[in-house]
């Protein structure tokens, strides 16, 4: 939902930065890679130290590279094999970022954060979120579309980053526990929605054959 509704606004917001980076001869791939390194550093260094607020600030500062890289690619007129490579790199490194964010939270709560349930729910969000992305990627590899569902990547990130950041500012941990629980369920529902979407398309194909 956010991917469709907020994209235009965020594209307008980040277009000047994308244009500047292109003028400085920075490539979209460099932005993808540096953004991923920044997200991983913020999540895997600061979260396990219990710095939930500053970790979130660092992750948020770098996570928008995922918007900037695409704007740059389109402004540079990337097409054909270049765009396919860019799409592959973008989506694959998104998975690395997701793993770092939920993994970093889990590391804190399994360790000094001492809250097994919250750590386990962070792992559940990571696993279910990966399934969401896999379902779409596999559908697209077969020529179907599965870009649907209540918990796409933007929603997952907004929910986890907002509540983790607020937890770092003093919000009681149970709010984060519940958010992760709801997010894990919403991600599982999204997997179901994507399976249903592909099933409907394959049925239509069979009926038309
Ligand atoms: C100025 C800063 C403002 C900060 C405001 C913060 C408030 C946030 C409030 C709401 C957040 C709403 C988020 C909305 C998301 C934006 C919508 C959007 O665009 O989503 C999708 C994108 C990108 O997806 P994708 O990568 O698929 O698309 P691309 O456009 O990149 O295109 C891909 C194609 O591009 C080509 N290509 C790409 C790369 C490459 N190297 N080469 C290429 O060729 C190729 O053809 C590809 O196919 O973004 C996301 O999904 C990321 C979402 C980020 C959401 C971040 C949420 C953070 C929000 C809140 C955190 C608050 C923390 C506060 C802490 C304090 C707490 C008190
Ligand atoms: O499928 P999902 O995880 O909800 O959402 C995402 C897609 O919207 C995006 O186009 C892709 O670049 C990401 O890697 C990710 O797959
Ligand atoms: Mg991107
Ligand atoms: Mg992406």
From TrEMBL:
Topology with respect to the bilayer: Multi-pass membrane protein
Key words of the record: Cell membrane, Lipid biosynthesis, Lipid metabolism, Magnesium, Membrane, Metal-binding, Phospholipid biosynthesis, Phospholipid metabolism, Transferase, Transmembrane, Transmembrane helix
Free-text remark on how the cofactor is bound: Contains a di-nuclear catalytic Mg(2+) center.
Record EC number: 2.7.8.-
Binding site for Mg(2+) 1: 66, 69, 90
Domain of life: Bacteria
Molecular function via GO: transferase activity
Biological pathway: Phospholipid metabolism; phosphatidylinositol phosphate biosynthesis
Compartment(s) where it occurs, according to its Swiss-Prot or TrEMBL record: Cell membrane; Endomembrane system
Reactions listed under catalytic activity: 1,2-di-(9Z-octadecenoyl)-sn-glycero-3-cytidine-5'-diphosphate + 1D-myo-inositol 3-phosphate = 1,2-di-(9Z-octadecenoyl)-sn-glycero-3-phospho-(1D-myo-inositol-3-phosphate) + CMP + H(+); a CDP-1,2-diacyl-sn-glycerol + 1D-myo-inositol 3-phosphate = a 1,2-diacyl-sn-glycero-3-phospho-(1D-myo-inositol-3-phosphate) + CMP + H(+)
Cofactor: Mg(2+)
Binding site for Mg(2+) 2: 66, 90, 94
Residue stretches spanning the membrane: 52-72, 116-135, 156-173
Pfam families listed in its UniProt record: CDP-OH_P_transf
List of catalytic residues: 94
Residues annotated to bind a CDP-1,2-diacyl-sn-glycerol: 29-32, 70, 74
Gene3D superfamilies in the cross-refs: 1.20.120.1760
First-level EC class: transferase
Summary of the function given for this chain in its UniProt record: Catalyzes the conjugation of the 1'-hydroxyl group of D-myo-inositol-3-phosphate (also named L-myo-inositol-1-phosphate) with a lipid tail of cytidine diphosphate diacylglycerol (CDP-DAG), forming phosphatidylinositol phosphate (PIP) and CMP. PIP is a precursor of phosphatidylinositol (PI) which is an essential lipid required for cell wall formation.
Binding partners and assembly: Homodimer.
Family to which this protein belongs: Belongs to the CDP-alcohol phosphatidyltransferase class-I family.
Protein name: Phosphatidylinositol phosphate synthase
Gene: pgsA
